[in-house]
Amino acid sequence: MPRKSDFGLEGRRTSNFFSKSNYVKGLSVFNKIVYALNLIFVSLLLIACAVPYLSVDFLPFLSFLSLAVPVLVAINFLFFLYWAFQGKRQMLPSLFVLVFGYFVLGTFVKFNFSKQEFLKDDLKIMSYNIRSFNEFGWAERKEVFNAIRDLVEEEQPDIVCFQEVSIGMKKQFLDYPYHYLKKIPTGDKVHLGIFSKYPIVNAETLTFPNSINNGSYADIAYQGDTVRLYNVHMQSLGITPGTGVLRSRSSKFLYRKVVNAFKRQEQQAEMMARHRKASPYKTLLCGDFNNTQFSKEYHLLKGDMQDSFIEAGVGYGRTFNFLKIPLRIDFIMADSSFEVKAHKNYNFKYSDHYPVMASFRLKKW
Predict the structure, then answer these.
(1) Closest CA to 307 of 150, 106, 94
(2) Please, which residues have CB within 8 angstroms of residue 43's CB and are 6 or more apart in sequence?
(3) Which of 44, 58, 180, 201 is deepest in the core (most CB within 10 A)?
(4) Where is the Endonuclease/exonuclease/phosphatase domain (predicted)?
């Protein structure tokens, strides 16, 4: 029989294995510094996992982490590899937070080995922030207007949702029989456009208070039913790279500006979520969220809807580059009445955003 002292010895060994002093014992000074940095980035990613569930009013600076999740994941993965190649258990904190983050936040990289095709009988929707067709000369390219029109004609989506539509955009821009283009003459509003091959039976602009951004919806007759499609352009952070704002303003000013934008995004998302839940129709939603899938805003807008990239996308899903960091801030979503059939990201640089397209099929109950 084992002696009582044996259990005591084993207990001390177990206790020592998990003790803080034993955990860093034997590490060089350099590795101790590396491990301290490692724990900081583990903590940041762990906190980022809570951001979608916290109001911006609660510690507003935490909202910045929603933009940094891909970077935090990459850094923690590098830390994990660093310790794993040395065979050290210091790899465990990063491994834990990576696995935990995957289940809480989901993934931003999709591996899809089944071939996704856009079939003729499915409903194809394209969403694209066109940045006013370069009306204000943000880029040297002069062929933006025709290039975007050519893309639409080549891809033949059934419905096109544009954000940041030029005030001079004509209904005849695309060869679509139905459209919703409401010009707002006051308030410096950024305009939206919806073009459809199917009849639009009703449409409305949803004005966001104290903002140049807004949303809209169109009720569309489709396959003997009515489908409501929301097209949204959420509050911009107002610090677009290349505009000089980052260089010309103090960090304190930029902080207040971005925090205020996060708060407006949350208010606008709550407004859209309430409107969508009251919809009597099957619902789709697309647009420029100006934030990532790791934000409170995305969490509110998505609700119980399906994200087409998560369901059928492949790769990274980049739709915007912020300070050379690729982000996914443009989305297409559908409620449970639809089956997501395909999703496509484009490497089509005729705006500061990249277009996305997805296809859907109505479920037969």
Answers:
(1) 106
(2) none
(3) 180
(4) 126-353
Q: Where are the beta strands (DSSP E) in the chain?
A: 123-129, 159-165, 178-180, 191-196, 200-207, 214-222, 225-233, 282-288, 306-307, 320-322, 325-327, 330-334, 338-345, 356-362
- Residue bearing the bigger pLDDT, 150 or 249: 150
Query: How many helices and strands in the chain, by DSSP H and E?
Result: 10, 14
User: Which regions of the chain carry the CATH code 3.60.10.10?
Assistant: 123-362
Backbone angles phi, psi at 197, to 5 degrees: -85, -15
Q: pLDDT per residue over 35-50, tens digit each?
A: 999 999 999 999 999 9
- Judge whether 285 and 305 are in contact, CB under 8 Å: yes
What six digits make up the tokens of 55? 């109001």
Round to whole Å and give the CA distance between 210 and 25. 57
Nearest-angstrom CA–CA distance, 248 and 325: 21
pLDDT of residue 90 exceeding 80, the answer is yes
The alpha carbons of the chain give a radius of gyration, in whole angstroms, of 24
Which of 264, 233, 302 shows the shortest CA–CA distance to 60?
264
What is the mean predicted confidence (pLDDT) over 61-85?
Answer: 94
Copy the structure tokens of residue 298: 């995305």
Q: How far is CA 77 from CA 38, 71, 97, in A?
A: 10, 10, 10
Largest Cα–Cα distance of the chain, in whole Å? 91
At 213, phi and psi to the nearest 5?
A: -90, 165
The CATH code of domain 123-362 reads 3.60.10.10
Is the model's pLDDT at 196 over the cut of 90?
A: yes
Tokens of 175: 């060869």
Distance CA 311, CA 19 (A): 43
Region of 317 on the Ramachandran plot (φ > 0 left; ψ -120 to 50 alpha; else beta): left
As a dihedral over the C-alpha atoms of residue 229, residue 357, residue 355, residue 209, rounded to 10 degrees, the angle is: 20
What predicted TM-score, i.e. pTM, was given to this entire model? 0.87
- Using DSSP's 3-state secondary structure scheme, residue 364 falls into coil
